[in-house]
Amino acid sequence: MKKVLFLLTLGVFLSADPIKIAMDNRYPPFEYPDSSGKTIGFDVDLAAELAKRIGFQYQIVQMDYDNICEAVNDKKVDIGISAFGDDEATEACDHGVSYFESELLFVKDKSRNDINSPEDLKGKKIAYDADSSVLRDVVVDFGGKPVPKKSGTFIATLLLLHEGKVDSVVIDSCNAPVLNGNLSFLTTADKNRLDLISGGLSNFMIYHTQPGDDSETFVIFPKDGRHEALKNQINNAIIQMRSDGTIQNLLNKYGLK
Fold first, then answer.
1. Strand locations in 58-203, DSSP E?
2. Of 63, 64, 83, 109, which residue has the fewest beta carbons closer than 10 angstroms?
3. Among the listed residues 46, 12, 111, 88, the one whose alpha carbon sits nearest the alpha carbon of residue 246
4. Reported pTM
5. What is the pLDDT of residues 225-245, one digit of tens each?
């Protein structure tokens, strides 16, 4: 009887109002705006599949990555799905099970014969995503000089690399599709920036790959446990999606594996 009541209570919660899901649409291919401004991407597809399997309505709320955890805890939104890793921006929230494990990619301009491994980065200027304290720590650990770059400016950072204004770039492997030539989710501005690089993406190469300390990617939930039932259902759905190949299909769709 308790189990039946539990499920009925969860059903009422899920059907009362749409689940508000916070996303930052500056993280292609996980979330990014299409030509009409609508947010699309891996996490959007993930949210749709979770809603279908669990049975809830939802609303995507655009919000800066760094502000989402606070908004979840302050009840402004219910959960966050935005390529979240274990970093300062998510430490105050509860974490779900991982649906994607990223790696760290070290990128250089092919003309740099003096850089062939992370050990060659000592004293050199290394660009990284300013939102990731883990990436900064990696740069510092190898003796590099950290150069923070705003999230969503990967192509602009590659231009700086090509111009020699930074010596290398350390990125999360979620950017790998761009390096592999998948430009479908780039903005017009980024495509124009890429045109400024003579030879385009062929100038760059990944010279080192390693696991990251925040390699897991997960949904975030409020710390007070008020959505514990929803968290359990989402976790179970993600485990099932990993088992039945749904997650892998999404990874393939967006060039992430």
1. 58-62, 79-84, 94-95, 100-109, 125-129, 145-149, 168-172
2. 64
3. 46
4. 0.78
5. 999 999 999 999 999 999 999
